[in-house]
Amino acid sequence: MKKDRVKEERTKFSADTSGRSPADWARALLVLLLGLTIAHLGVTLFLLSELGTDTFTVFIQGLSVLSGLTVGTVHVIVLCILMVVMLLTTKGYVKPGTVVCAFCGGPIIDLFTWLLGGYISGESVMGVRIVSMLAGCVILALGMSIVINSNAGTGPNDLVAVILSDKIERVEFRWIRVACDLFFVALGFLLGGTVGAGTIAAAFLTGPLVQFWLPVTRKWFSIR
Question: Residue 57 pLDDT more than 60?
């Protein structure tokens, strides 16, 4: 009986949105943009602390070292490859918002860096840097949960854990996300990426925090 109840409470991320009206899509994309902005405020706070890059960026850095291409170029290439692969092999995950997430995150980070860079940096006292890093993890997870609950699509790199969570029903999303983050960190480090204390903290905090926020933001933004 308990197992059945747990299964019912599990978040299922895939959904058919073919019946949405243009107005429904407009609302969903607005919610997604709100979540994306919040998430990348968290990313900016995390990066400004200079205690390590996020887990996926370690992987991108490693590929950049291996290929000789810039981090930005590798990032776009990898996201595009992930989108194409997921579009061809899965159904109900890659949506218009996936493209928005792939290409709008960078400019949002640039904006927040311009706004906050004068207050938080690697030269700030360690207490400020630690608070910035931890706050960044919490805010990132909040934003990610809003993006996921918009049901308009999420970033290609975040979709990896989302899809696996739907496929591996016996394991909660948080642990699958932690496993994915650790995989990106380990592979990126072996390829030459940079790992810091903040990277390890993000690997273990992001998944559980997103799972904590998902039911909360689902009540705020119930979009189907």
Answer: yes
